[in-house]
Amino acid sequence: DSIDALLHMSEDDKNAMTVIGTFTNSWNDDAPMAYDVTTKKWKSSLPFQLTTADKFKVRQGKSWDVSYGNSEGQDFEVPADGWYYVLLDTSGDTPVVSLAEVTCDYGWTIIGLNNDWENDVEFEADKEGLCLVKEVTVSAATAFKVRFNHGWDVNFGVGGAGGDNVALAAGTSKISFNTINGEITVLPANN
Asked: Which residues contact 165 (CB under 8 A, 6 or more apart)?
């Protein structure tokens, strides 16, 4: 079955970069990456909770024919426990694999508070892969969404990716967004 799947792969899939390692079902599954044409960098679609025991590589077309690890070509080793995006920089002569620690200033924001769909509110990061905004105050009942990089290509609402706007009552609330599973939680600010 896996050979048949490789033979019938689209050109996009053959050229796509993926992450594979100890944290992707023990080297059995590939995690997708997205390409930014402006920066010429690939970035894992979701962050990973990694430990110093984890190792990985980035490979093309779910094949070992083209793969990248550390500067010696070996498995990339995680320097410290934490939540990370995996990056592959292809802008130079030699592709370089690196990690970017998850921080909410890396791109996750809230849009729509007080019916303002023009100005994003930046999240604050915690140590567990969540982005938190504490004591968000709205003057009247409103709705919001969570989005990435101030754009609409990746956004979350009710039910997850691309979902409807999330209702928010007037007053002060704490909004949390789990960057791992896309779950949005709204609680009273005193929780």
From this structure: 112, 143, 144, 145, 157, 158
The DSSP output letter for 165 is: P
Q: Tokens 């994003």, residue?
A: 120
How far apart are the C-alpha atoms of 2 and 103, rounded to whole Å? 36
Residue with the two structure tokens 């996009």: 12
Mind listing the pLDDT tens digit of every residue in the chain (191 residues)? 555 555 666 787 788 999 999 999 999 999 999 998 888 899 998 778 899 999 999 999 999 999 999 999 899 999 998 778 899 999 889 999 999 887 665 678 899 999 999 999 988 776 565 677 767 899 999 999 999 888 898 899 998 889 999 999 999 999 988 876 788 999 887 76
Backbone angles phi, psi at 85, to 5 degrees: -95, 145
Tokens of 4: 């048949």
Inter-CA distances, 48 with 120, 130, 177, Å:
25, 12, 15
Report pTM: 0.60
CA distance 68 to 47: 18
For residues 180 and 88, give the distance between their C-alpha atoms in angstroms, rounded to a whole number. Answer: 20
